[in-house]
Amino acid sequence: LVGHVTKDGGIAGPRVLEHMVDTVLAFEGERSHQYRILRANKNRFGGTDEIGVFAMAEEGLCEVGNPSALFLTDRAEQVTGATVFPALEGTRPVLVEIQALTVRLSSGATPRRAVVGWDSGRLAMILAVLEARCGLSFSTAEVYLNIAGGYRISDPAADMAVAAALVSALAEKPLPSDAVLFGEVALSGEIRPVAHAALRLKEAEKLGFAKALVPPSVADAKGISTKNFRTLANLVDHILGRD
Question: In which residue ranges of the chain is CATH 3.30.230.10 found?
């Protein structure tokens, strides 16, 4: 059977071929990275929300047993604009590092907004909430956001980690390197609960993280302490040392 795909990776033309088969698998990943993520776009015998992570070695593609270790960078010292987010792919938590950089511009220049690995529209929303609800100004600063390791995130629970990375970069105040963050941010500035918080905390504890900055409904887990935030303004005050 022969078919072809579009530039976006979808099966082109009539979908007869896709209907005939039981499973459609696709490899994702940046060309500059050796790691590839295997996803099932269609699966008659299971879910499509699970992933497999592989690395290209001399003997071919090899499975990666602990994907979280790939997407985290070793930080000997604290740096500004970096947070760790426990993403959830199906039932498998994967810890990824979110990196933000802000650059102040002279008046009159048009600031850029560049995103790699996340939705640019969601970044615009987080910046708007930070300005309207938290009193921070990004209007004269260029903003760059990157998900380390070529990973792509669609999980709305990343909102809080992204916002914390932006505030840390803007204020040049580093966050604790042993902390993870997750929570969805509403337009009102409220931090909303997310699914499978216990799974995310368990994976973070397994990799040596001791703290978690989370929505108000999340309780302490074994081996990791949580600090709850009801609004994004509370989180900003905590990062800036005003609480």
Answer: 69-240
